[in-house]
Design brief:
This protein is of the alpha+beta class. It is built from 13 helices and 19 strands. The protein folds into three domains: about 80 residues; about 90 residues, PDZ domain (Pdz3 Domain, Roll), CATH 2.30.42; about 160 residues, 2-enoyl-CoA Hydratase, Chain A, domain 1. The chain has a six-stranded mixed β-sheet with strand order 10-11-12-15-16-19, with helices on both faces. Strands 1, 13, 14, 17 and 18 form a five-stranded antiparallel β-sheet that branches. Strands 6-5-7-8 form a four-stranded antiparallel β-sheet. It is globular and about 90 Å long.
Amino acid sequence: MNAVLSRNRLTTAALLLVWIVFMPILGFAKADPKQEELTYRYLETFANVLSILQENYVEEIEAKEAIEGAINGLLLSLDPHSAYLKPENYREFRNETDGSFTGIGIKITMEDGVITVISPIADTPADKAGIKAHDKIVKIDGEPTKGKTPFDAVKIMRGPKGTEVTLSIYRDGWESSRDFTLRRSEIPLVSVKSLLLKPGFGYLRISNFQRNTTNEIRQQLGQLQEKSPLQGLILDLRNNPGGLLDQAVTVSDLFLEQGLIVYTRGRNKDQDLTFEAKADTTLTRFPLVLLVNEGTASASEIVAGAVQDHRRGVIVGTQTFGKGSVQSIIPLNDGAGLKMTTAHYYTPTGRSIQVTGITPDVTVKARDSVSAVTDAPNSSKSTREADLENHFSEQTEDKKDRSETEALSAEARQRLDSDNQLQAAFDILTSLALYASYDADTDAPVSN
């Protein structure tokens, strides 16, 4: 009799706990009464199963861990981007947009039940080691990732600065997985870096979209303009896994005078949002080239889609990742958080980026290590005039003036030589600038 009463009390307590935890997730404040009754019935079944397990399972089961496991299972069954964040995971998640953190610089998700790379963050240990978007992480320090959530994996991959972690990676086309040993480092808050490739032509690399990204871009562009008035700009979004939606919107607004930037559609009307460009925030108009690749995801795809749809610039590189959904973060009472997909976003012309991604205007695949060796300066090449014996020297009267305007910095030359996608973008940008200057000289309208 006492066992029965104990079991009933346990069932009731478990049911109440499940009800309290699940109702904010399922959102039944305005639910249909019949649907709510059906849901309560299934939750009662869950509570009974939990009670039986607690009494009879071979090892002791903690209710808290069982409930959290059930919540994780529920969210993972919905989509790979929704997740329950334990208090410590929620704090780490906030650090990714509010401050720096120590790790290897990698964004991951769940794809077909496997921990999958969305993108390595630019200039981090993961990026420098050659980890790529869509890589499958099958082990971390020899421990299989099967059954782990992305946040479980993140917790293992992070650690003190200077320590090492080994990832076993499988990539399409490989016969078996390969090990990458990475040394953890501080992942900086700064998300924007700039370089003046040559007088008049700037380069901006955005590694992710954090709270200060738009302000950083303004500052970096101001510094470039002080060195030389810009005639063109390369915006590098490769291996940018995304970040904050509002920053993607304000960054896009810097380059667009008017019209839609992005709009979202969700199940609830309050998730249907429209974002438009404002003329008073637009920078001086100049030719623009965007670099993208398979690691360009989410917020960075919003920027690329807006620029492409408005024909504001040329998109160069390879097909982007294809993450076209919006996640909202809901704080829970115990310090935990709920990351939940609430909407899909669409480009100004109504394209959904989900799965398909952004198709570049000019496809340029990254040169692999084999072709890089082949194209090295010492490799065989076709004979040019300069290689012929007794060739005429260069004949020009304005050699000094031209060298001053066409000079590349040593850093720019090194980057262009080692990065064929950047070289292609630079060639396109200089051509666009030349065409724009020609139109200006002839008073013809500039086409975009």
